[in-house]
Write a structure and sequence with these properties.
342 residues; alpha/beta; Udp-n-acetylmuramoylalanyl-d-glutamate--2,6- Diaminopimelate Ligase, Chain: A, domain 1; UDP N-Acetylglucosamine Acyltransferase, domain 1; 2 domains; 4 helices; 16% helix
Length: 342
């Protein structure tokens, strides 16, 4: 795909300095720019590359004033970083705007699919599925019976969505994610063997949710596992049965959340965090990477450690822990002096 400086400036509402007909067909870092590429400059420490890059078009802040002659076309905008992000989003949307149905695929006669859909090869869509407009279902995906998917969703290759799942509008589910598999529910019998408890609930994913590759969201035992509006999940995250995650919470990779835990709104959870079941985490909570959460946390707290506690106390404790050999040596020296005095 090729775009001219004029087309890009119209998208970004920017001012062109140079050739409005300059064409680009790819994106690049400013230091790696080459003919036919588009890049941006927002960090002043990269200013020197502006004069040596071979990129054809560069997006810069409207306040930028060059120190010497520039041999490339500039597009001046209010915020170059934000504008470049907007352009990336636009580019991604155009690139992924596939339509039609590839063969072979299977769609149950009882299912309903909206307009402008894309169904990739070897996709399976079960009974009584309802899919909205502009939904893209990539190859080798599985959509189970009675699933509902809203408008403008992307279901990337290899995603498995079990029956009764409900997905809102504008969601992205990346390759290898599994939504609605059985929760980890077992009970020992009189012989000490574990018997599975039927998991008959479902998963509800609200609008504007992103789910990373190879993440797993278990269906509820009863009721629903719920991912609220605007939640962003990284790759390789495990969310157990009956968990609820509040709106606009973001969670980094390899975090595991045990059954029936409730996570509040606008939380930030680092990578490899472990969260125990049946606890409640408040709103606006920040949990640092590799923390272990075994107790409920009130609103607006920042925690770290295993088990996690207040981050300022953790940092003080860590200083003492790191200097523990010196502290022990000093205590032993004091004890010797006291004995000698007696």
């Amino acid at each position: 795909m090729k775009f001219t400086a004029k087309q890009i400036a119209e998208i970004l509402e920017g001012e062109i300095i140079g050739n409005p007909n300059e064409e680009v067909s790819k994106l690049s870092k400013i230091e790696e720019g080459e003919k036919g590429s588009l890049t941006f400059l927002s960090n002043p420490k990269y200013n020197s590359f502006l004069y040596s890059t071979k990129a054809s078009i560069i997006i810069v802040n409207s306040s930028f004033v060059p120190e010497k002659e520039i041999n490339t076309t500039l597009i001046k905008v209010e915020d170059s970083y934000e504008s470049f992000s907007k352009l990336l989003e636009f580019y991604n949307r155009v690139k992924n705007n596939k339509t039609g149905r590839e063969h072979p695929h299977f769609i149950s006669d009882s299912s309903k699919i909206g307009s402008n859909e894309y169904i990739g090869a070897f996709a399976y869509i079960g009974n009584n599925v309802i899919i909205g407009d502009n939904v893209k279902i990539y190859p080798n995906s599985y959509i189970g019976d009675n699933t509902i998917i809203g408008d403008n969703c992307y279901i990337f290759s290899g995603v498995k969505i079990y029956s009764e799942t409900k997905i809102g509008n504008n969601c992205k589910i990346h390759s290898g994610a599994i939504i609605g598999c059985d929760g980890f529910g077992f009970v020992p019998d009189k012989n000490g063997e574990f018997k599975a408890i039927p998991q008959i609930g479902n998963v509800i994913i609200e609008d504007n949710v992103d789910i990373g590759s190879a993440s797993t969201i278990d269906r509820a035992t009863l009721g629903s596992t719920i991912i609220r509006k605007g939640v962003k999940l990284d790759n390789q995250i495990q969310i157990a049965h009956n968990v609820e995650i509040g709106k606009n919470t973001v969670i980094a990779s390899q975090t595991g959340i045990a059954g029936s835990a409730k996570i509040g709104e606008n939380c930030m959870i680092g990578g490899q965090v472990g969260i125990s079941g049946h606890i409640k985490i408040g709103n606006n909570v920040k949990i640092l990477a590799q923390a272990g959460i075994s107790k409920s946390i009130k609103d607006n707290k920042i925690v770290n450690g295993t088990p996690a506690f207040k981050v300022t106390d953790f940092n003080k404790s860590y200083v003492y822990f790191k200097n523990l050999p010196k502290i022990v040596s000093k205590i032993e020296s004091i004890e010797k002096e006291l004995k000698a005095q007696n």
